[in-house]
Amino acid sequence: MRRALLTLSSLIGLVAAPLAADTGKTAPTQQCKGCEALLELAASSPLRKDDRARDAARHPVETLSFFRVGPQMKVGEYAPGGEWYSRFLGLYLGQQGHLVGLFFDPTSGAFKPDRQDGIRKAAAAYPADVAKFTGMDASRFAAYTLDAVPEGEKGTFDVIIVPRMMHNLLNWNIADSEMKAMRALLKPGGLIGIEQHRAKADAPYSYTDGSKGYLREADVIRFMEVNGFDLAGKSEVSANPKDTANWPGGVWTLPPTLALKEQDKAKYLAIGESDRMTLLFRKRD
């Protein structure tokens, strides 16, 4: 493991100069030259032996490259949950960058008291969780609930990623407040990368209100524009034309959840994970 970390550190040095002009008070606006090689190195770490099975469906290298996540950046992961992306980002950012877990505001009105307590405990445990996986010191990582972010953190983040969570925020009616809090954390020109299960463009609102997991791409773009962001790019890296996006039980019918268990399991495995939009937004002045 030490040899792999040293190799990653030496490669970071090769891209440090191109990144130097992008560090400071303003977030970078250009793609990071050479970062894909570093992301590939993180992806191939032996420490990810149990996580790597999801790479074919989640495309972490291509997605994080599209989100312009450089190895020296300060990056927030919103709603880390199972910490799959956290473990990857910990390896990638843990030496010269800074990874911060951003957890729900427990007081937003969406959570009962026991769930509020669980959110705070998860945030408190996050740095040690990532440190244990990566073998790095816990001081390399941080976490906050969005109601308890230190004032000095505002305006310091280069990128925040929001993987497959927008449907919950809209369904729970906390999307505006959570996005406002994240926007405040970003530097001028900072970026938010959103990966989200994609409904058909003509799907009815009754299916795209968040309760089925799917959202219309145009609705997500409009929401972000209203909340002070401009669309910076789209990627089809996680598109899946086999997904009809009209399952009565929602996106959880498909892998990895397979909510119907053994019923038509082979069919759903053949379809694969959901069709997903991958969108990048820039904070508007």
TrEMBL record:
InterPro entries: S-AdoMet-dep_MeTrfase_Alr7345, SAM-dependent_MTases_sf
Transmembrane segments: none
An example Gene Ontology molecular-function term: methyltransferase activity
Gene Ontology biological-process entries: methylation
Keyword NADP applies: no
Signal peptide: 1-20
Keyword annotations from UniProtKB, A to Z: Methyltransferase, Signal, Transferase
Top-rank taxon, per record: Bacteria
Protein name according to UniProt: Methyltransferase
Organism for this UniProt entry: Novosphingobium barchaimii LL02
